[in-house]
Amino acid sequence: MPISLALVTRFFQLLFNRQFTEAERELERLKQRMHETEWNQGYSRALHGMLIARKSNSDGYSLLSKLDLGDEKALLDYRREFLSHVRNKLHGNFDRGFFSAWADCMRVLSKMVVNNPGSKDSVSKKEEAKILDKDKSQVTMESFLKGTSA
Question: What is the value of pTM for the model shown?
Answer without folding.
Answer: 0.70
